[in-house]
Write a structure and sequence with these properties.
- This protein has 202 residues and is of the alpha+beta class.
- Helix content is 53%, strand content 9%.
- It has helices spanning 12-23, 39-46, 68-78, 87-102, 105-110, 126-146, 158-172, 181-191, 194-200; strands at 2-6, 28-32, 57-60, 63-66.
- The chain has a four-stranded mixed sheet, covered by helices on one side.
- Helix 1 (12-23) runs parallel beside helix 3 (68-78), helix 1 (12-23) crosses helix 7 and helix 7 (158-172) packs across helix 8 (181-191).
Length: 202
């Protein structure tokens, strides 16, 4: 059985593989670790199970996989339902996950992941607004192109898992007005998932 090192509800990176495994009913054991005030001490502790001293980390017996995207790709080798079955949807999902994984620096830096809080931003820089517009395009495109309740059709996949932390940030910082109505409906649906509610309980 997989072992997944995570820190709910604070780690958005950990949320991605955790909720994917949870919703797809893939057997795994959660190994909960906590961030420490002393970053040096935290790195020392995390380095005992993580090559980068960061989370998430997945273990498959003696095999260690770090980084959320690498974890998802590894799991997909045994559980292909991680990605959409349709080739076009799968290509789109992989592209979206990679873009989310490496981009949106203003969203990450300005809208820190605090899913249990409500925060009002006094200013929205143009760069952040541009990223929100791009995210609206991604959400709207997936919902329209693949015609399902999830981003790539009728089933929850890695694309939904990777963008769920975005939904949480939008809620925390009151940014829903930047998104189309059908996108807002999708975002609320994601935030209402029982698995996500479980995550929030830590």
């Amino acid at each position: 059985m997989y072992q997944l090192y995570i820190n709910p509800p604070k780690s958005s990176w950990s949320l991605r593989p955790w909720i994917l495994l949870k919703i797809l009913d893939i057997p795994f054991e959660s190994k909960i670790v906590r961030y420490l005030a002393d970053i040096h001490e935290q790195r020392q502790q995390f380095s005992t199970f993580s090559a980068t001293a960061k989370i998430p980390v997945l273990y498959d017996n003696e095999i260690q996989i770090w980084d959320s995207l690498a974890i998802i790709e590894y799991v997909a080798e045994s559980y292909p339902q991680v990605w959409p079955k349709d080739k076009k949807a799968r290509a789109w999902a992989r592209s979206v996950c990679a873009e989310m994984h490496s981009g949106f620096e203003y969203l990450r830096n300005i809208c820190d992941f605090r899913p249990l809080e409500k925060i009002t931003l006094t200013e929205i820089p143009q760069q952040l607004e541009d990223e929100l517009k791009r995210l609206n395009t991604i959400f709207a495109q997936g919902l329209q192109q693949f015609g399902g309740k999830y981003l790539t059709g009728s089933l929850f996949t890695a694309a939904d898992a990777f963008l769920l932390p975005v939904a949480a940030r939008i809620q925390t910082y009151g940014l829903a007005h930047y998104f189309d109505e059908n996108v807002r409906i999708y975002l609320q649906q994601m935030l209402a998932l029982p698995a996500y509610q479980e995550w929030l309980k830590g």
